[in-house]
Each structure stands twice: as C-alpha cells, then as structure tokens.
Amino acid sequence: MPVDLPFQALAALWFAAYCVMRVALGPECAFARVARAASRVPGLTGIGLRRALYQRWLGVCGRRVIIGYGSVLSSRVRIAEEVSIGVYCHLDDAEVGRDCLLADAIVAGASGPVRIGEDCWIGTAATIASNVGPHCIVGAGSVVTTPLPAWSVAVGNPASPVSSRRPQSAI
C-alpha cells in the first residue's frame, strides 16, 4: 500500500469540509480556515495531511514536499518537488523552485508575487519581498527587498550579496 494513501483519504475528508465552508464563506476564506486548521496537526500525520491537502488544492505542489507545523500557504503558492518548509512559515503569493530549504518562520510573498529559485536555502525568520535567484543562500533574519542574482549569499536588512556560492570550476 502506498505511504501517501492514508493521507489522501484523510485529505479527502478535509476537502469535503472545505467544500461545505466554501458555499457559506467563499473560496478564499474557506481555504484560509482549513489551511490554518491543517497547520495545527502535529507530527508525521500533520506533514502527510498538509502535503496531501496542498497537492489537491494548489495548482502546483510537487512530490516529496514537507510543510512544517504551523505553516500556512495561500492558494496562490506554487511549490516544486523536494521542497522543505519549516515550522510557522507564511507563504502568500510565492513560487518555490525545486530542492529548496526554507527554515522556520519565513514570510514570503506577503507584499506581492515572489519567486524563489531552485536549490535555495532561506534562513530562519527571513522575509522575502522580492525574487531570489537560483542557488542562493539568504541569511537568518534577512529582508530581501531587491532581486538577488543567481548563486548569491545575501544577509542583512535589507539583504545584500556578500559573496558567491558558485563553484570555483564554474567561474
């Protein structure tokens, strides 16, 4: 039996509750309420439930995605494969590339659409208000207000590149 099958069945029940609420509250409000409720389910059950729900709801949500406890995503989020989102993150209007690691308490896309490129590492409590190029590292507590070029290592408020992560053989 596939590992995700029990979570898909559980997600189907949550989706039924969403459909009922959608009639009474409207789609965005119902989505937000069910997403917040799902964010509070602890442990592996919660991780599996959130992955199954967002794969059902979002236009794009890849396989092998981990969404941590307390993290809430809006219906405008798109997530590629092999992405890990830490606890208490809030993603509003964001596209997250393949093989990204978002630490805890990240805020992305709250002030407008943003894209986080593939293979990025975003540190704890960072705020992403502008695009982050592929293969970037954003330090903990940093605030990205201007686009970061590929392979950048950026820190600070506002975040600015301090070095490059590009392999020496590619320079």
What is the element layout, followed by pairings?
Layout: H1 5-25, H2 27-39, H3 43-57, E1 66-67, E2 72-73, E3 78-79, E4 84-85, E5 90-91, E6 94-96, E7 101-102, E8 107-108, E9 114-116, E10 121-122, E11 127-128, E12 137-138, E13 143-144, E14 152-155, E15 160-164
Parallel strand pairs: 1-4, 2-5, 3-6, 4-7, 5-8, 6-9, 7-10, 8-11, 10-12, 11-13, 12-14
Antiparallel strand pairs: 14-15
Helix pairs in contact: 1-2, 1-3
Task: Quickly describe the structure.
29% of the residues lie in helices and 22% in strands. It has helices at residues 5-25, 27-39, 43-57, and strands spanning 66-67, 72-73, 78-79, 84-85, 90-91, 94-96, 101-102, 107-108, 114-116, 121-122, 127-128, 137-138, 143-144, 152-155, 160-164.
Description:
The chain is built from 3 helices and 15 strands. Strand 14 (152-155) and strand 15 form a beta hairpin. Helix 1 packs across helix 2 (27-39) and helix 1 (5-25) crosses helix 3 (43-57). The protein is 29% helix and 22% strand. The chain has helices spanning 5-25, 27-39, 43-57, and strands at residues 66-67, 72-73, 78-79, 84-85, 90-91, 94-96, 101-102, 107-108, 114-116, 121-122, 127-128, 137-138, 143-144, 152-155, 160-164. With 171 residues, it is an alpha/beta fold.
